[in-house]
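Dear colleagues,

As part of the handover before I leave the project, I'm documenting each prediction I ran so the next person doesn't have to rerun anything. This entry is a single chain, and its sequence is reproduced below.
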Amino acid sequence: MKPEDIIIAPIVTEKSNDMLQQGKYTFEVNKNATKIEIANAVEKLFEVKVLKVNTISVKGKSKRVGYHQGKTSDWKKAIVTIDTNPGDTTYLGKGGKAVKGSKKLKDSIEEFMGA
């Protein structure tokens, strides 16, 4: 699956806005996506370092319009914790020397609030 197919939409509620200060972002995701696929999709789309992914399967509610009764569809929610203080990554290169990584990571997702 492509990252655009995994992340469907951000969820903006009062509770999710309070969690933004802790580096936790809430998304509606594909029902068949795993935590690893969600983490890789968020890292690729928003160029951030994902620390943890929590997923919740939300059951649909019964709805009624006049005489007709139906049910909303089930969906999946993911709470993604990102690294708010990304440092330079170092790894061992040839000869055992420490080499700094050149990948620049962001400390927040600006697109989340429609900025």
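The first helix runs from residue 3 to 6. The longest strand covers residues 50-58.

All the best with the project,
I.
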